[in-house]
Design brief:
Distance between the termini: 27 Å
CATH topology of the largest domain: Rossmann fold
Number of helices: 18
Bound molecules: NADPH dihydro-nicotinamide-adenine-dinucleotide phosphate
Strand content: 15-25%
Structural class: alpha/beta
Number of domains: 3
Number of strands: 12
Strand order of the largest sheet: 9-8-7-6-10-11-12
Helix content: 40-55%
Shape: globular
């Protein structure tokens, strides 16, 4: 058995019943062969075995009272996976499907993603199986306070800096920050995605969606093309999806779909800025369902229980959740003329789907590169907090754009260097890996 196969077997044995974690590790290990061969020092120092083992896993009880005075118990987690190149950094996810395997996959992805951003951030992720959907603001606040009462022992501006993810937006970050400040008696940049008048960065809410679109534009440029005039499908209707639509509109493309866990809307006329404003109010303020969009606007079809991948498009932006594109969806997309997939979500394409995109040689930007703008902007928020300063919207957007261009160049150059120029998956994995692995070697056996 090869070195990679041995490590993979170890991962499956040591982390039973965590298929998403196995999937994320396998996708990375499967592409590292050429770099491991070229640099035997990684195998000699057992870097892969060390990389797949989290530095620390924290798991805790989160008790809280609901509005009827009933006791509720959830489970909280923080995975502090790798701090070779900086403090642990990665979002918190509140969703009923959250368990150890999901958060370990996300934290593992985050190590390489953060490495690609050019900023000094290690990899982490956390969250809870708490479902914010249908809860009152007070219930969300009581949950967040209980969650932070334990989490605050483990995080800090130079130790571990969480942010948002699915189910954790501005409201949740506010409650979490308030409780941290109250217990620790310090006002520091311990979370990112904060409100603008208490330490947040301009463009942070927009960053993942904008960044993914900037990355897509860079991919298209390699073929002398651009977003302008492209018909785009977007899944999800949360933070990432909303700002992906906004940036695609600004660059002259047309988005024709959004979705949530109940279904998809198809709007052939395109989701204009006015319609997007409606979506933002629907999702961020009224916390309603995407179905209501089809009731509000004429000529819109609602596809209950469906994902957007059957809709004909030039470019697809999966921005909801993991494994939302399978092999069949991928084949349908390619058959319908899709030339680009840029992943706003983390691991939205399953291994069969990835295989289809790579073998058909479409422009396929994997999440750890394409959606790295979110965490990159979090890194910019940390810099501003550390310097007690704030940059203008234009300044942050310019830095974000430059970072996405740099990530694209690094990924694309690495793919070329290792002999498969169109393979952004390999390029992203090797480029992200080498920086972290070399830092681990420099720092000795820790
Ligand atoms: P939000 O909670 O704001 O939105 C998530 C959206 O995805 C909602 O429309 C939600 O629908 C839908 N969704 C969630 N789970 C499922 C599911 N199992 N099936 C179908 N639809 C689902 O989250 P974000 O926009 O922040 O995150 C979306 C993706 O982007 C995630 O994969 C996340 O890890 C990734 N990401 C986010 C970053 C960020 O900065 N926020 C940074 C990098 C990546 P519903 O309301 O019905 O649940």
């Amino acid at each position: 058995m090869s070195y990679v196969e041995n490590v993979m077997e170890l991962v499956v044995k040591r982390n039973p019943a965590e298929p998403e974690f196995h999937q994320a590790v396998k996708e990375v290990l499967d592409t590292l062969g050429p770099v491991l061969q070229r640099h035997p020092k990684y195998e000699k120092n057992r870097i892969l075995e060390r990389l797949v083992e989290p530095e620390r896993v924290i798991m805790f009880r989160v008790p809280w009272f609901d509005d009827r005075g009933n006791i509720q118990i959830n489970r909280g987690f923080r995975i502090e996976f790798n701090s070779a190149i900086g403090p642990y950094k990665g979002g918190l996810r509140f969703h009923p499907t959250v368990y150890l395997g999901i958060l370990k996959f996300l934290a593992f992805e985050q190590i390489l993603k953060n490495s690609l951003t050019t900023l000094p951030m290690g990899g982490g992720k956390g969250g809870s199986d708490f479902d914010p959907k249908g809860k009152s603001d007070n219930e969300v606040m009581r949950f967040c306070q209980s969650f932070m009462t334990e989490l605050c022992r483990h995080i800090g501006a130079d130790t571990d800096v969480p942010a948002g993810d699915i189910g954790v937006g501005g409201r949740e970050i506010g409650y979490l920050f308030g409780q941290y400040k109250r217990i620790r008696n310090e006002f520091t940049g311990v979370l990112t995605g904060k409100g603008l008048n208490w330490g947040g960065s301009l463009i942070r809410p927009e960053a993942t969606g904008y960044g993914t679109t900037y990355f897509a534009e860079e991919m298209l440029k390699t073929r002398g093309d651009s977003i302008k005039g492209k018909v785009c499908t977007v899944s999800g209707s949360g933070n990432v999806a909303q700002y992906t639509v906004e940036k695609i509109n600004q660059l002259g493309g047309k988005c024709v779909s959004l979705s949530d866990s109940n279904g998809t809307i198809y709007d052939p006329a395109g989701i204009s800025p006015e319609k997007l404003a409606y979506v933002m109010d629907l999702k961020n303020v009224r916390r309603g369902r995407i179905r209501e969009y089809a009731e509000k606007f004429k000529g819109v079809e609602y596809k209950e229980g469906m994902r957007p991948w059957g809709i004909k498009c030039d470019c697809a932006f999966p921005s909801a959740t993991q494994n939302e594109i399978n092999g069949e969806d991928a084949r349908t997309l390619v058959k319908n003329g899709c030339i680009l997939v840029a992943e706003g979500a983390n691991m939205p394409t399953d291994p069969d789907g990835v295989e289809v995109f790579l073998s058909k040689k479409i422009l396929y930007g994997p999440g750890k590169a394409a959606n790295a703008g979110g965490v990159a902007c979090s890194g910019l928020e940390m810099s501003q907090n550390a310097q007690h300063t704030t940059w203008t919207r234009e300044e942050v957007d310019r830095r974000l754009h430059d970072i996405m261009i740099a990530i694209h160049k690094n990924v694309s150059d690495t793919a070329k260097e290792y002999g498969d120029p169109t393979n952004y998956v390999m390029g992203a994995n090797i480029a992200g890996f080498v920086k972290v692995a070399d830092a681990m070697l420099d720092q000795g056996l820790v």
